[in-house]
Amino acid sequence: MRTARDDTTPRRAAPLRPEILAQVRRIQIRTQRMVTDVMAGGYTSVFRGAGIEFDQVRDYAEGDDVRAVDWNVTARTGELHVKQFMEERELTVLFLLDLSGSAGFGTFRRDGRGAPVTVREVAAEFCACLALAAQRNNDKAGMVAFTDRIELTVPARKGAQHVLRLIRDALALQPAGRGTDLALALDHAARVQRRRAVVFVVSDFLTNPVSYDRSLRLLARRHDVVAVRVLDPATRALPAAGLLRVRDPETGALRTLDTASRRVRAAYAARLEERSAAFRQSLRRARVDLLDLDPSQGLAGPILRFFRMRELRSAHG
C-alpha cells in the first residue's frame, strides 16, 4: 500500500557524499545570487497577498463590490451585508516534486562539458530559488516528493537551515518508486495543506493528463497552483540517428526505434503534441498557470517572464 511519510530525517536520503554536499552548495550559491540580483521584488509582487482569509461580515457600504455580498446574512437580516477579508501575513510555498525515473534523464551539458544536467537537477534548482525567495520574505516552504507513491512530506517551515534541507532532499533523496502518480501527489497535498498556499507542481508531466485532471482542479480551487514543466530538449524530438534501443526509465521496457524513418519521427512528434495539447487544456480547465523550464536555457529568463505575465494579468484585473 502506498503511504505518506512526514519526517524530519528521511530514511531514504542518499549518503551525503562530498560531491553531493558540493552540489548542494553550488545550487545554494547560484540560486541565492539569482534571488538577490535578478528576482528582487518579483516574488513579492507576484505571490505576496495571494492568500486571504475571512475576517468578518459588515454592513454594505456604497462602492462595495457586489460579489462580496453575503447573501445568507442579507436574507436573514433583511439588510445588505458583505464579507470582509484580510491578507494573510505570511505565505506558504509548497513544492510537489516529481522524482520518478524520467527525472533522471538529461542530455544538455553546461559549457559543453561535464555530466549532463538532469531534469531532477533543474527541478531542484527551481525549488531552491523559490524557497530562498520565500525565506527572504519570512514565508514558509515545504515539500512533497513523489513517484508512484508519496516518498517524503516535509512540513512547511521557515529558516535558512530548513531551506538547505529542502535543497538536499530535492537532490539526494533516493526514491523507492520509479513510476509517476500525479493524482496521488495532488490529492495528498490537498489533505496535508489545509491553509491556502502557492503550490508548485514540478514535473516533466509526461503522464496522461486524464489520470490527474480532476485532482488538479480540486487542488486549484483552494490553492494558487503553478505547473512547472521541466523538459530536456532531447525529449521534444527524435534525432535522425538510425536504429536506437531505448528504455522506459519508469517501467524498464525496452524498444527499438528506427529514427531514420520520417514516419517514425513524425508519429513521435504528433503523439508528443497531442499529449502536450491535452496537458495545456487540463491546465486551462483548472485555471492553473504554466512555467516551462529547459535545462539548456537556465532559470532566470523563464522565471522573470512568468513573473511579468502574472504582474500584467493582475494589473489588468
Task: Tell me what the structure shows.
With 317 residues, the protein is an alpha/beta fold. The protein has two domains: 18-47 and 89-315, von Willebrand factor, type A domain (Rossmann fold, 3-Layer(aba) Sandwich), CATH 3.40.50; 54-87, no CATH class. 40% of the residues lie in helices and 21% in strands. It is built from nine helices and ten strands. The chain has a six-stranded mixed β-sheet, with helices on both faces. The protein has a two-stranded antiparallel sheet with strand order 1-2. The chain is globular, with a radius of gyration of 22 Å.
Task: Supply the key terms.
317 residues; alpha/beta; Rossmann fold; 2 domains; 6-stranded mixed β-sheet; two-stranded antiparallel ribbon; 10 strands; globular; disordered N terminus
SS field, number of helical segments: 9
Average pLDDT, rounded to a whole number, is 86
Q: What percent strand?
A: 15-25%
Q: Which sequence of strands runs across the widest sheet? A: 5-4-3-6-7-10
CATH class of the largest domain: Alpha Beta
N→C terminal distance: 45 Å
Extended strand count: 10
At the fold tier of CATH, the topology name of the largest domain is Rossmann fold
Number of domains: 2
Q: Bin the helical content.
A: 25-40%
Oligomer: single chain
**CATH architecture annotation name of the largest domain:** 3-Layer(aba) Sandwich
Order of SSEs, N→C?
HHEHEEHEEHHEHEEEHEH
At the fourth level of CATH, the homologous superfamily of the largest domain is: von Willebrand factor, type A domain
Structural class: alpha/beta
Largest pleated sheet: 6 strands, mixed
The shape, in one word, is: globular
